[in-house]
Design goal:
The protein has 491 residues and is of the alpha+beta class. It is elongated, with a radius of gyration of 79 Å.
């Protein structure tokens, strides 16, 4: 409320300011009811030299058209004396005497200078005597009509100048009023700026208080962080101390273990020294025994030398006899090799005869089988690849059973004899029983061939055919090459 009253008082004082007066050029302070608003300001007229007037143009009488015919014209000012009254063209309007004053872009405090005292006097004299003097001069020049027109023009110009001065005075008063309003507005703006500045200062104070609170909070958080760091450092220090303690205990345990190992080493060294001493004594004993043995050996060598001399003669005789026996043995070995070759040939022939007999017996057995077996559907797998995947899988399972079971012991001693890898065909029925075992290529050793038959028969019964395979075949013939190294391998 006090601020509002102060503001109203200041605005009233600003509105009461008036400009002008005879002071020192400063604005005067007067009350509003002391000023006479209806007072007309003094007329201010500035005399200037008028521009030269153009001479009036006189229109001549229209001439009578001549035979040659063009009308003639006369220049203004050269009319004959007998002509009628000339028609004078209206003079060009004079430009009003206006003083150009730049309007300030912004409202400012300004005091117009007081007009000189001679201006009203000059204006009054000009208003009183100017027209008469001019009329006299014009009458003397003999151009009354022109003087009348010029006088009327000057009077109109004077009236226009007075109107313009009144207008400018009104504009100046309006400008002064505008300046006063602008000053009041500036004061109001200053007060508003002061209020805004106070608000800004208050905001700055509040912001400073908030920043102080934030700083205090940050300080508290920093203190808490430092406390947390201190506690973490304390925990780390405790952990480090614990690690040092554990390391010390570990080193102590290592030292104790090293001491125990050193004690064990010393005991071992003592035991080694005792063993060395015992070995030295044993070596001394052995050396004595060896010396005795050398002595006895010398005696024996002497006896042996004599015996060697005796045996040398006997050996020479024996060598002669051995040479005779070696020759006889060579002849006997040659005869035995010839007999062995003949026996092997006879064995191969006998094996071939037996195989032929077995084939005949198999054919007879097949002929004696029921018609269902003689007309059985047969599948043959001579190798590892076939279009029937079921047959290949069944053959691989059969081969794994032969290879993985301990059957090599039956032929371990036999395969040391020179032989070739036999090519064997095994026929299996759909129930897993063995129909036949035949050799496409024999091993050359009948015992190995018989062992292969025993191996095949010892692993029966084999798994029955899968349903898909049993629907296609009743018998499958599997031909594989048998190889023996550290086990039985089928290729």
């Amino acid at each position: 409320m006090p601020a509002l009253l102060v503001s109203l008082l200041l605005h009233a004082l600003l509105l009461s300011l008036t400009f002008g007066g005879e002071g020192l050029g400063l604005p005067g302070l007067t009350l509003p009811w002391q000023a006479r608003r209806a007072e007309v300001p003094d007329l201010r007229v500035v005399l200037v030299t008028p521009p030269p007037e153009p001479e009036p143009v006189v229109a001549p009488e229209p001439p009578t058209p001549a035979a040659g015919g063009a009308p003639s014209a006369e220049v203004a000012g050269e009319a004959p004396p007998a002509a009628p009254a000339p028609q004078v063209a209206p003079p060009a309007p004079l430009a009003p005497a206006v003083i150009a004053v730049d309007r300030p872009r912004e409202p400012t405090w300004s005091v117009p200078p007081a007009p000189p005292a001679s201006v009203p006097v000059i204006a009054a004299l000009a208003a009183a005597s100017g027209p008469q003097a001019e009329l006299t001069r014009l009458r003397e020049s003999g151009d009354a009509s022109r003087a009348a027109l010029d006088l009327e023009t000057r009077e109109r110009a004077a009236e226009l100048a007075q109107l313009d001065l009144a207008k400018r005075e009104t504009q100046q008063q309006a400008r002064q009023q505008t300046e006063r309003l602008a000053a009041a507005q500036a004061e109001a703006e200053r007060l508003e700026a002061a209020r805004l500045e106070a608000a800004r200062q208050e905001a700055i104070r509040k912001e400073a208080a908030r920043l102080e609170a934030v700083r205090a909070e940050a300080a508290k958080l920093d203190a808490e962080r430092q406390e947390a760091q201190r506690q973490a450092a304390a925990r780390q220090e405790a952990a480090r101390a614990e690690a040092v303690r554990l390391e010390t205990e570990r080193q102590e345990a290592v030292r104790r273990a090293a001491a125990q190992q050193e004690a064990v080493r010393q005991q071992a060294a003592q035991a080694e020294a005792a063993r060395a001493e015992a070995a030295r004594q044993e070596a001394a004993r052995q050396e004595a025994a060896r010396a005795e043995a050398v002595r006895q050996a010398n005696a024996r060598q002497e006896a042996a030398r004599q015996e060697a001399a005796r045996q040398d003669a006997a050996r020479q005789e024996a060598a002669r006899q051995d040479a005779a026996r070696a020759e006889a043995a060579r002849l006997a070995a040659a005869r035995a090799a010839e007999e062995l070759r003949e026996a092997r040939l006879r064995a191969i022939g006998q094996q071939l005869n037996e195989e032929a007999a077995r084939r005949d017996a198999a054919r007879q057995a097949q002929s004696s089988l029921p018609s269902s077996w003689s007309s059985a559907r047969r599948g043959r797998l001579f190798g590892r690849a076939d279009a029937n995947a079921e047959m290949v899988l069944y053959a691989e399972a059969w081969a794994r059973k032969i290879q993985l079971n301990p059957t090599f012991e039956q032929v371990r001693e036999l395969v040391r004899q020179p032989h070739t890898d036999p090519l064997v065909t095994v026929a299996l029925r759909s129930d897993g029983t063995v129909e036949s075992v035949s050799f496409f290529r024999s091993s050359g050793v009948p015992a190995i061939d018989d062992a292969i038959r025993r191996i095949v028969e010892s692993q029966a019964n084999y798994p029955a055919f899968p349903p898909a395979l049993a629907r296609e075949y009743d018998v499958i013939e599997i031909r594989r090459t048998w190889h023996f190294d550290t086990a039985v391998r089928l290729y």
